[in-house]
Specification:
five-stranded antiparallel β-sheet, alpha+beta, Immunoglobulin-like, 367 residues, C8orf32 fold
Length: 367
């Protein structure tokens, strides 16, 4: 049981909160990492604002990570709630504030375990009727995770007559490696979408992690493979102890009958898939897309990232088109990778309206 101390405004509140069922799994674990994390959200308040509301992504307790202790510094009241996928979310609200800005800081200690599925196609079995019914929402589209005739055609051609879920998923994984390039390989000419878009990735043949995984989710769902997208942060070795934001990262999980939820990361695998030139434009971006650096193509890593996820990660949320509790006024939120903010009922945009910064240091050598 974790030790949880949360500072709310100027008060002290002791809480205990289990993680969402939607991100739990039962696959074997490997190496462990332990990290001390500082997660900061700074909100700029427009003149004349009457009501500012904040939903801030926080780490989940699940089968692969434990939040050993956490502390929240906030000048306004905060509370924990759940979204429509069961993710724990930090909520803050202030009315009639005269402050030009305010900052919420979430300090937490993370114990994270490597996910090792060692996936064997022979373990897979067809979904039961009960499984299909409970997983329906993971086989249907989201706002930016499309399923149309183009997607159905590609998925059908790639998967062909393969009925084994693991083998079909690997075919889609390999197809994306062969046909899509991660934008950091050539940042001058390849761009990511701002929303994580199947359309963008399919049309431009490039994108960031959310674009890559939106396209993969669309293809998998078109073949009735239940798929969800996990959002969090990749705790890159290079940024350990550095005063540099670690950005965010996402990866999919697909459901296999007889096994459960299995992760992969085709976006990171793409960095190791083929040869491309390093230069002043892409070198830093490429390194910081990986867990511990880059030294060229590596087939072992390509294979590793199908079914396994390294321990240098933290999970913040699962799912797309999220509804919050308390609800926001602008409708479902595309994803909660960092935060969502409303001012007087309207979306308050990142960069001009708020900024997020996550830094960390590793506490002990990994096993």
């Amino acid at each position: 049981m974790r030790n949880l101390i949360t500072i709310v405004g100027f008060g002290l509140l002791l809480l205990g909160c289990a993680g969402p069922e939607t991100v739990q799994s039962t696959l074997p674990t490997g190496k462990e990492g332990r990290f001390e994390v500082r997660h900061e959200l700074k909100v700029m308040v427009p003149d004349g604002s009457q009501r500012v509301r904040v939903w801030f992504a926080v780490p989940q307790d699940d089968a692969y990570q434990d939040i050993v202790e956490e502390r929240i510094e906030s000048p306004i009241p905060t509370s924990f709630g759940r979204d429509s996928e069961g993710n724990r979310v930090l909520y803050a609200e202030t009315a009639g504030t005269s402050a030009k800005e305010f900052t919420i800081v979430h300090h937490f200690t993370l114990a994270r375990r490597e996910v090792l599925s060692n996936i064997d196609a022979s373990q897979a079995r067809p979904l039961t009727a009960a499984e299909r019914a409970s997983l329906t929402k993971y086989t249907t589209p989201n706002q930016h995770v499309l399923i149309d005739d183009r997607i159905r055609t590609i998925a059908r051609e790639v998967v062909a007559s393969e009925s084994n879920t693991v083998k079909a998923a690997r075919r889609l994984y390999d197809w994306e490696l062969d046909n899509i390039d991660y934008w950091v390989k050539d940042p001058k000419n390849r761009k990511a979408s701002p929303v994580g878009s199947t359309e963008h990735c399919l049309t431009t043949k490039t994108g960031n992690c959310t674009d890559f995984h939106s396209l993969w989710a669309s293809l998998a769902r078109a073949e009735s493979i239940p798929t969800r997208i996990i959002y969090g942060v990749f705790l890159k070795k290079e940024l350990d102890g550095q005063d540099v934001d670690s950005s965010y990262h996402c990866w999919p999980e697909f459901y296999v009958g007889g096994v459960g939820w299995v992760p992969h990361d085709v976006a990171v695998a793409d960095i190791y898939h083929d040869t491309f030139g390093l230069n002043a434009d892409n070198e830093t971006l490429v390194r910081r897309t990986t867990a511990d650096g880059y030294s060229g193509p590596d087939r072992r890593r390509v294979d590793y990232y199908f079914g396994n996820i390294d321990e240098r990660r933290v999970v913040f949320s699962s799912g797309r088109d999220l509804a919050f509790d308390p609800p926001c006024e602008a409708g479902p939120v595309n994803a909660l990778a960092k935060a969502y903010v409303e001012v007087d009922g309207k979306v308050h945009p990142e960069k001009t309206g708020w900024t997020r910064k996550l830094t960390y240091r590793e506490l002990a050598d990994r096993q």
